[in-house]
């Protein structure tokens, strides 16, 4: 039997650094708590994030700040239509000095990768990135190189301008653990952002943690207790997206072309554990599952033309599923 009280005490002690990390991030990132929370969830669970939002919402700043706090290597890649896979992974170069080919590693050899506007590059470039995400390794010539841990990809998409883009196929979108929608800041937050950016001294983050601290925290997150009832709740949510009529959601049969994959259930369980860790708890509650459900599921539900015609979004469907599925 698991002693929940003892586990809670252990998690409270081990998760203290989360408050320090959040406080340091808030020095440079005003508002956007939702984005910061999801960054931490992905970091603690070895996942990747697809960020959707208009330009100028501190996406790059958030990732660079997080990389600096934990003393990790950061790379930013601007995806353009003329980008080639070699621009990401690297290539073999002939050295006249040694008279042999040497490997020149690309920007993917880092801990944090910001793939800016991922849908602006053709499929062969996208697949080169997604292979690295899944396999955590890169092959250049005859040599295969393991990527350093942590390895996290944050890919961004602009929801407004879709002309001349190459939308990610469903199988590739599924590789992302979370899809996070970033909105504009509130009036008070924007006032502080303006003040901060026109002041003489812009605040900077400090290095407070190490990569080893994050890798250790990842192992502790796995210890968080997930009850069988919560497991069943997660499975019911995923199955309701596949077979809505079995959960009394007959109308959704015409709106859903495909539901969540097995990765949806795995990622929901992992994200719920990480969310509980961030809340300094040793066990997952149904509220944790509901808190991360939209981020895990929104890119894993396919909509029919009928849904689009009636302005039904994946958000609406997830809300309906959460209302229909019995909470343990």
Please tell me about this protein's structure:
The protein has 14 helices and eleven strands. With 328 residues, the protein is of the alpha/beta class. It folds into two domains: 46-193, Rossmann fold (3-Layer(aba) Sandwich), CATH 3.40.50; 224-324, Helicase, Ruva Protein, domain 3, CATH 1.10.8. It has a five-stranded parallel beta sheet. A hairpin with a 2-residue loop joins strand 6 (137-140) and strand 7. The longest helix is centred in the last third of the chain and has 17 residues, at 262-278. The model has no long low-confidence stretch (mean pLDDT 88).
Annotation keywords:
2 domains; 15% strand; alpha/beta; single chain; Helicase, Ruva Protein, domain 3; Rossmann fold; 11 strands; globular; two-stranded antiparallel sheet; 328 residues; five-stranded parallel β-sheet
């Amino acid at each position: 039997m698991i002693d929940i009280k003892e586990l809670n005490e252990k998690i409270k002690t081990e998760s203290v650094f989360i408050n320090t990390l959040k406080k340091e991030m808030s020095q440079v990132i005003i508002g956007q708590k939702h984005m910061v929370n999801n960054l931490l969830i992905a970091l603690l669970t070895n996942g990747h994030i697809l960020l959707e939002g208009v330009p100028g919402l501190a996406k790059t700043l958030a990732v660079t700040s997080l990389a600096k706090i934990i003393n990790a290597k950061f790379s930013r890649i601007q995806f353009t239509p003329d980008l080639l896979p070699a621009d990401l992974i690297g290539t073999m170069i002939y050295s006249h000095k040694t008279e042999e080919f040497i490997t020149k590693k690309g920007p993917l050899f880092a801990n944090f990768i910001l793939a800016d506007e991922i849908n602006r590059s053709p499929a062969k470039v996208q697949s080169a990135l997604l292979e690295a995400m899944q396999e955590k390794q890169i092959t250049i010539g005859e040599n295969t190189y393991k990527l350093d841990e942590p390895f996290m990809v944050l890919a961004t998409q602009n929801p407004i301008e879709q002309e001349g883009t190459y939308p990610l196929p469903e199988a590739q979108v599924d590789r992302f653990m979370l899809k996070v929608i970033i909105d504009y800041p509130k009036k008070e937050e924007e006032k502080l952002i303006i003040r901060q950016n026109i002041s003489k001294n812009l605040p900077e983050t400090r290095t407070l943690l190490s990569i080893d601290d994050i890798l250790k925290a990842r192992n502790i997150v796995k210890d968080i207790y997930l009850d069988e009832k919560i497991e069943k709740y997660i499975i019911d949510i995923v199955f309701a997206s596949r077979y809505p009529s079995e959960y009394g959601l007959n109308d959704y049969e015409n709106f859903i072309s495909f539901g969540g994959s097995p990765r949806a259930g795995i990622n929901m369980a992992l994200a719920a554990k990480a969310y509980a860790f961030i809340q300094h708890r040793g066990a997952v509650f149904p509220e944790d599952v509901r808190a991360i459900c939209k981020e895990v599921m929104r890119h894993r539900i396919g909509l029919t033309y009928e849904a689009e015609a009636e302005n039904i979004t994946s958000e609406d469907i997830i809300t309906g599923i959460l209302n229909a599925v019995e909470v343990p």
